[in-house]
Design a protein that fits this description.
Oligomer: single chain
Protein name: Polysaccharide biosynthesis domain containing 1
Structural class: mainly alpha
Largest sheet: 2 strands, antiparallel
Organism: Myripristis murdjan
CATH topology: yst0336 like fold
InterPro entries: PBDC1-like_dom_sf, PBDC1_metazoa/fungi, Polysacc_synth_dom
Radius of gyration: 17 Å
CATH superfamily: yst0336 like domain
Helix content: 55-70%
GO cellular component, one term: cytoplasm
Distance between the termini: 32 Å
Number of helices: 7
CATH class: Mainly Alpha
Strand order of the largest sheet: 1-2
CATH architecture: Orthogonal Bundle
Number of domains: 1
Shape: globular
Pfam family, one: PBDC1
Strand content: 5-15%
Length: 167
């Protein structure tokens, strides 16, 4: 599905209504398929913007939130040995992983807006978002992994590849 065509087909009023709907609390809805499509579009757009950003700006200089230092230190304290270059889905989704992630994520409730909203996260940080290379994660998991990837230089190959292709 071409996301630009879907957004354009909504028109100004439809896009405004969609934005309003996405700002309401989750318990205001049942399992509305249209809402799921809107959430998927929002997550896709976020992923696209983020990948364009790390392709255009040296990631080691990026600041994703006001509390990157806190996120990074807490993340590396909790997940010392997590391989962020090539994530294993079980490191995010297994029952054992969920038990470890839950207190970490909850630490940022009220600190990071929409800390538990769904977003897309690349498994292999040297590759783009594709169906095979993407997992659904919470927003704070995304920030934790991506802040660490930026600081530890794992996103630099994406930036360097774009620079080389422009030469």
């Amino acid at each position: 599905m071409d996301m630009d065509n879907v957004l354009a087909s909504l028109g100004v009023e439809g896009a405004s209504s969609a934005a309003h709907a996405l700002s309401l609390p989750a318990d205001a809805y049942g399992n509305d398929p249209q809402l799921e499509v809107m959430w998927a579009m929002k997550a896709y757009n976020h992923a696209e913007v983020y990948f364009n950003l790390i392709s255009s700006v040296d990631p080691k200089f990026l600041k994703l939130t006001k509390v990157d230092d806190k996120i990074y230190s807490s993340f590396r304290e909790t997940f010392k040995d997590l391989n962020i270059k090539l994530l294993n889905p079980d490191d995010l989704k297994s029952d054992e992983a969920k038990e470890k992630w839950r207190p970490f994520c909850n630490e940022f409730q009220g600190v990071i807006e929409d800390f538990n909203y769904g977003t897309l996260l690349r498994l292999d940080c040297e590759k783009d978002y594709t169906e095979e290379n993407t997992i659904f994660a919470t927003r704070i998991q995304f920030f934790a992994v991506e802040v660490a990837r930026n600081r530890e230089g794992f996103n630099s190959p994406v930036y360097m590849a774009k620079r080389v292709s422009k030469s």
